Amino acid sequence: MTDTPSRQGDTQTDPARLRAIFGENLRMLSAEYPSVAGMCRDLGINRTQFNRYLSGESFPRPDVLHRICQFFGTDARILLERASGLSRASYDLLGHPALAGFFGGAPIGVPKEIFPNGVYRFVRRSFIDEEMFVMGLVLIHREDGYTFLRGYEPREALRKQGLSTAPRDREYRGIVMRQEEGLMMIVTHRNSMACSFNFLAQDTSFQRNLWEGYVTRTVRERVSGIRAARMVYEHLGDDMTTIIATARTTGLIAREAVPPFHARLLRLDQPFR
Predict the structure, then answer these.
(1) pLDDT tens across 171-181, in order?
(2) Residue-wise over 57-71: b if at least 16 C-beta within 10 A, else e?
(3) Which listed residue, 8, 194, 232, 238, has the most CB atoms within 10 A of its CB?
(4) Is the pTM value of this prediction over 0.70?
(5) CA 64/CA 76 separation, integer angstroms
(6) How far apart, in whole angstroms, are the C-alpha atoms of residue 152 and residue 174?
(7) pLDDT tens digits, residue range 30-71?
(8) How many CB atoms are located within 10 Å of the residue 79 CB?
(9) DSSP state string for 125-157
(10) CB–CB of 134/123 below 8 Å?
C-alpha cells in the first residue's frame, strides 16, 4: 500500500489555509491599534492591500512581510502558526506599540532620493568660539531599514577644551528620520556623553546637493558659548579624490575660509532665531 499525505500535511501546505492563518494573525496583532489607517501609514502599506491580507485573499511580498514582522515584533512564523502560539519578539524601540503612530515606519524610512548615502561635508558656527566655524565630514549609510550617521569631532576643537582626542572619544553616531518639512537627526557620542538634535531641509534654489538647517546641543544654559547654530550639509557622494581633498580642510576654520555657497545659506550676518 502506498503512503498518502496526511490531512494535517495538506492543511499546512494549502495556500488558502495559510492565507487564512496569516489574516487571523494580522487581525489579532493589529487589534491594539486605535486606527487601522494610521497603522497602515506607519507600515507603508496601502489600506486596500492590507485589507486583502486581513481577509486571507493574498500574501505579502518578502520585503513587505519583513516590514510587518519588524513592526509587530514577530517573525515569519506569522504565516504558519496562530499568533497565540507565537513568542513575541523583542520590540525595536522605534517600532514599539507605545510609539505607534508617532515613530514607526513613516519617519524611519528615509528615501535615498531625498537624502542619499555617502560622505557629506558640513559647516556650522563653533559652539565654543563664535568667531570660528567647524567644518567636518560625516558618513550617511543605511542598514536594516534605518539611516545612520557617523563622524568624528575635529581634534583641534577638543584639544582647546582640554578633552580627549582619542578616536574612540571623538566619534559620534546618530539616526536620521523624516519629518514633515525635512530631516531630523539625533546624534550622540559614546555612552551619551554629549548629544545634539539636528534639522535639515534640502535647498532647492541653489544646488541640489545642499541641505540647510540647524544643530542644537543638549546642554544646560551657560554664560559663555552658544547652544544652537545654523548648519549646512553638502553631499560629496563616494568620490574619494574629492573626499580626501575635503578632509584636509576640515577642523576649526576662520570665517574667511567658509565656502561662499555655504556662507550664503548660513546667513552669517543674521542672528539665529
Answers:
(1) 999 999 998 88
(2) eebbeeebbebbbbb
(3) 232
(4) no
(5) 11
(6) 12
(7) 877 777 888 888 888 989 999 999 988 888 888 888 888 877
(8) 15
(9) E-SS-TTEEEEEEEEEEEETTEEEEEEE--HHH
(10) yes
